[in-house]
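Illustration: TonB-dependent receptor plug.
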Amino acid sequence: MLRNSLLTLFIAFSIALAAFRFEDNWLDKIVAKFDAYQQAWPQEKAYLHLDRPYYSAGETIWFKVYLFNSGNHAADSVSRVVYVDLVDKSTGKVVLLKKIEMKGGLGEGDLALKDSLRAGDYKVRAYTNWMRNFSEDFFFHRDVSIFRTDTPPAEFPLNADAIDVQFMPEGGQLVMGLEGRVAFKATNSLGKGADVTGAVLNEANDTLVGFSTFKFGMGYFTITPEAGQNYRIVIRKPDGSYAKYPLPEPQKEGIVMMVDNVSNKENVRVIVKHNKNVPATAEMALIAQTRGDIRYAAKTSMGKRMALFNIPRANLPQGITQLTLFDEIGHPVCERLVFANKNQQLSVQIQPGKTVYKTREKVELEVTAKDPEGNPVSGSFSLAVTDAGQVLDKEPFGVNIHSYALLTSDLKGTVEQPSYYFESKDPNSARDLEVLMMTQGWRRFVWKDVLEGSPAAQDYILEDGISFTGKVIRGNKKQSGKVKLTFMLQSTGKDSSRSVFMGESEESGAFSVLSLDLRDTTNLLIQAVSERGNRNFDIVLNPFQPATVTLTKVPFNSIQFDANELAQYLKRADEYLRIERQIRANREKMLQEVIIKAKRSDEQKKDSRRAMYGTPDASIKLDMMNSAGAMSIFDILQGRVAGVTVTGSGFNRTVQIRGSANFSGVVEPLFVLDGMPVDKSTIMNIPPVDVEAIDVLKGASAAIYGSRGGGGVIAILTKRGGSNYDWTKDITPGTLVTKLLGYSPVREFYSPRYDKPAPEHERPDYRPTVFWAPMVQTDKDGKAKVSFFTSDAQTTLTLRIEGMTPNGLFGAAAVKLKTE
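Result:
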């Protein structure tokens, strides 16, 4: 029907336009504004590969993060922090949050589900700070079900009567007297496509056109609405009942657009018709852009009522292209999405040594990746191996990294079985993809913002590390003015490393610290002091707020299970969690019973801050007498250490250890704060009351620091830097002590090695996720080796692999293995 209708139009007229023919200034301006907008507002896409689609409270969600540029899909190396959270869909609350460190667009992590987590439907999200400048629709979303082994799964029987049908005119509108197409989508109460039939009737109850769904509840029909007529649509539901809907209201005057992306191999054909009364010199224009890159722009006269644009397929990259038609005054009036499927994806193969394995036997795999031309490629992949008896495949053509990057990330709403359009052998899949483009169109930007040059405010920055912001406030709550700030960071990990750095607030007292490399939880101390030494300030950190959550009206997850389907999984999950709880209880009992008593050795008593140089040449231990009235460390040094001279005043102090000079003048000593080299300005801002001792190293004693210690060394040991001092509990004026959440630590997936005896091998092994390898890297020959051991289950194993190359090619594959 589509082909015949368009062929008739092609015979009636043929006005072909060449691509990129900019003859008039107004089209040039639109293109220039669009390019400027895209440059100012680049976009990112995040994708998560999860090890499976559902879990039980007490288990762990394992994931890999892929971050890539929205335009060319190359791996994103700018944003180094991706936020991954778990949202309770019943309340909209974020129940778990992780900060994932990204390296070259890749990251890994996990979400450990608490035993107390309620059963229900959840959503896993992934986004960068920069992505928060745009709609939440830009985030990665994945629905997951979480069960409890002590609670039977809730059942939601499908109500066949609850059918919702939406009608969407192609291009955005119907116009009286002009033939146009209307796409529709019918969904049931679970959000799945429903098969329906229907017809359009006029006031005389005459049937003008009949129609039925093609795939996933979607279809379209063609109609020419006439003036003075009222139309209604009658739908026959799967249960035989009927429902009535109004036809979308036709406009009296306007433009309609019809697209043929099926019949011609060389061009995408766009037919435009209008009934507007415009001057013979009036023109309209069509712009085609793919992920922010204009691939076609052309104009035509509106002197005739019909026009044809031919867009060469060679101009369009793989993926979704947005077509926008502009009227005679340069306003966007019609839009339509089309998909260019050029089959440009990675060929990924998983080759096991054999197809049948014994329980607890070693499996060795070879992964091969090739580009569309068959050349081996280096790429990063993630592999999940699951027990098919427990992890059911409820969506045969579910989302993967390829279908997400090219399709669902640029469409609004849920796309049912998105990989169908790439992997199915159905000859109608190309037609079904076009209907999808008509029913789920979406704009990643608003043309009004582009044309006015006024996008929304940039509230969130690109993060290339852990960041935090805050404000210094006077005790009287007035504006603080510029304030000198000292920051001390102390890791709570095994190394307990420290770092100190300086900064300055704005006049308003606001400050920000960017691009930190922090791991897990870190203690933070901030000290504020004015130019005159005033410390009467309050310091407030702006708390991190997860991105807002928009709740949908869908009452439950679109993937549903019954108790029989989940019986095996819930049984095994309960057994595994019981064993885990018992192991934890035994470990805690042993820790409570063991008491270790020992004297601290002299080596342990030694101050680790002096480990670099041992015994200093001179040392001043500060007390109330020698620090009274001192405004800085240099006031205490002056005249108290032989051979150390301090000249100048205020912030213009010069320190010299006798003999430290060259032809250029004085060579000042290296300043060290609690074992960390710092600049002189840092030392100037440290209150003497916070200092425990000052060590001085001269001549050969400073040689341990190399050329940096050529002028000697002055080491400041603070009370807070001492091994026995808990500065996190210290509260003094102008000081804030708090904790920061850095990059979430990476945990290793537990995969037993049954070729080496171990006590834990005595426990039964029926894990639903048998193996998880998030960082499988193919070499220059496109090869990678992976190995794991099967579990105790005599079952079928599902092996799923996904991944990408740095330049933006995606691929996914799945194979089955049997264990007996």
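Reading the tokens back as a structure: The chain is about 15% helix and 35% strand.
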